[in-house]
Design goal:
Chain lengths: 305, 272, 365
Amino acid sequence: MMDATTLSGEAIAAGSLAPARRRLSWLMLSPAVGLLAVWAFVPLAMTLVYSFRRYNLLYPERNGFVGIRNYEYLLSDPSFWTAILNTLVLVLGVLAVTIVLGTVFSLLLNQNFPGRAAARLMVIAPFFVLPPVAALIWKNLLFDPLNGFIAWLLHLAGLPAIAWFTHVPMLALMVIVAWEWTPFATLILLTALQSLDPEQLEAARMDGAGPTNRVIYIVLPHLARPAAITIMMESIFLLSIFAEILTTTAGGPGEATTTLTYLIYIRALLNFDIGGASAAGVLAIVLANIVAFFLMRAVARNLEA
Amino acid sequence: MNEQRASLPGTIAAWVVAFLMVFPILWMAITAFKTESEAIAIPPLLLFRPVLSSFAAALAQSGYLHFALNSIIVSLGSTVLAILIAFPAAYAMAFQPGRHTQDLLVWMLSTKMLPPVGVLVPIYLIFRDTGLLDTVEGLVIVDTLMNLPIVVWMLFSFFRDIPRDILEAAHMDGVGPRKQMMHLLLPLASPGIASAALLAIILSWNEAFWSINLTAAHAGTLAAYIARYSAPEGLFWAKLSAASVLAVAPILLFGCLAQRRLVRGLTVGAVK
Amino acid sequence: MAKLELRKVGKFYGGFEAVKSVDLTVEDREFVVFVGPSGCGKTTLLRMIAGLEDISSGELFIDGARANAVPPDKRGLAMVFQSYALYPHMTVAGNMGFALKMAGAPKAEIAEKVQEAARVLQLEPLLNRRPRMLSGGQRQRVAIGRAIVRSPKGFLFDEPLSNLDAALRVQMRTELVKLHQALAATMIYVTHDQVEAMTMADRIVVLEGGRVAQVGTPLELYHRPANLFVAGFIGSPKMNFLSARAVAIGPRETTLELAPDRVLAFPSPAPALAIAPGAAVTLGVRPEHLRFVESGPLRGVVDVVEHLGVETLVYVKESSGGTVIVRTDDLSRVRQGETVSLALHPDRGSLFDTAGDALFHLSPT
């Protein structure tokens, strides 16, 4: 590696930058590194500290170290378990739908057909819609049981209207979120498909694999890794779904659509229970880190390649 | 060799899928050009005289332009800041890599994996205590930090793709570091910088969690505005649609422009 | 084993005619090489034989049966791709057995055939590895192994050595020739490298602009090129082309004028040349058929001398303006800047008319 010499004009041995160069290099890195370090560690540490304290903004005087009582309280709270369950249903359900649809859509869009570029943009467009807008389009224009488009379709089919957010609130929420995130899966899988060596498909054709077998034995294995990465990226984002819930169900009815993220929001900003919300926050971080661990391993492996 | 043409069923299926996915956006756009009574008509009206009155009403709504301006300031401001901070860092990592460069990069990316809700409490309290709550500056800071890892990564990957030979040739030709930067690096990396910027703008424009939780009437962005707008104004579909169209249109355009390069940014290079 | 017949086979891409009415018979067990510059249609022709491209016009027969509409896997042909096209997620054994698995062969039979092919190609220790853990040469062998396992009637190779380094390429060339002998199979091999073509082929098909320029054995092509294109394409360094005028065409002797006062005479062929006296012709002489003499029909100044060890290439700036290459083993005498005189080998060379077609060859064969 002689990268450093390019700009310095000095012959510098591999890996060991001259001190002046090294200082400059650190100077260039330090704003980004410093800011991110503060951003990553300070609030995290604070969350951790608060989670061991009694702290409610409504009663600021009653405040002190309570050990793991916030966690005990949280873990014995049925609302917490409902939220965890809701989170899992939302995340896993949406993941399943987006990966399946994303695979099918990317295979369809990877064909050579007239207007392909336009069709791709149409499929990807929902990803760029502001989350509250996405929620409101579905809540009002499409899902409304009286005047909504879907109610009319059901009426045409001779079926009764569905009060989506009353009777199947989680399903309705999942439809919205899946609509937003299917484009993401499609876009990534489509990109991956385009990196498939066409000679591999031809070799498979010579080997007697028909269209279906080519998909099963060549295309799907090729998509396995990008799909895994899509799943990991998406789960990080899905774990934090918030605006869609706020604008449609506000966690209800009852606690039917209260996810962990939404629960923390309620505890922290509506009930001002800083200690309890922080304990839940720590658990959310742990949950996310499990996913992130695998994701970062995949990313690091790619950096080496 | 020539790519094989899709079969007719394949073509139809692809177009049906495309139409179904875009339909909600399309329907919103159509509704925005209706009057309020047309908007809720059953059966839904496909033929009607388009009017702009809903747009006028949305724009006349108290504060719409104010929130739109906030969105523009926050997304542009945070993007410019993120690029200014990321550029030297990405440059140093790409051209003067040390032993720990890769670990550093992976660590930077891993900060993105922190769920915002995990640090909602401390950030809210810090903002409250420093007077940053409901300020544009506060939101710019948050969005900058949110996007910084992705911007660093994108710039790094674009720098790394610049062939070393070109810079070495310039060096042999006696072109100094500053001129290398101005005449080679910037032009060569500008598509990369542009796509990093585009992605950062899209992400911060569409960022809803922090803008809803950290702002109110003063510094709210369109995301926060529309989320709040929904409750009292929910019944005025045409006006709501018009406001939504205005809020979504610029980013939709940007997104379509940038879609090719977005995959690299969104998956931090794990999928090429 | 397979005999292939192409009758007026053509390929159109929209209005572009990539392959123009090719007639060709590939005999059973023959090793035929398609060679030509890039864009000459050689790969398209191969892909039409494979069934990966539709045949726009004309007919393809495999063992006497019309095969235009037969799908690729039913033609009994196996193909080795330029990129090898190994399936990255399958082991070497999985790659080699894939075709049999698709054909629904029992597991034991697949394993046996894979084992057998692996033995021939010395791949046995690698059977459980993935392609990305293999070297270029090993991947190449796996790709060939995948073809062998199917026991095809014929093998198709699309520039299979172009991704290997020079030393490995020479080695694989020999291995492929041995493999051809061992399998006694029909092979069609596409390359842009005339050295590969010369060293491996029973017969070479030279393609130019989608058309067959000449079909023949390597030595036929070398000594009796049918036209200027083949003459120039086969052989390295290239054949020298000298402009000349036929001044006298007698019953016994034909005289060419290379330049005023420099003439060249040789015995007339039978039948006599079908050109009028005074017609312009091109004389083709290979570099090794020129030698330095005291006084000869060619004169010039030595421009560059390249010592290659086993031979020496001398570039002579000829007095009429062109450059003539001389291949000699003489290391001592010629120096740069020296004025030299050249003579032609008395019974080697080719004569071409203005259209570029060969008129006749002075050649022992």
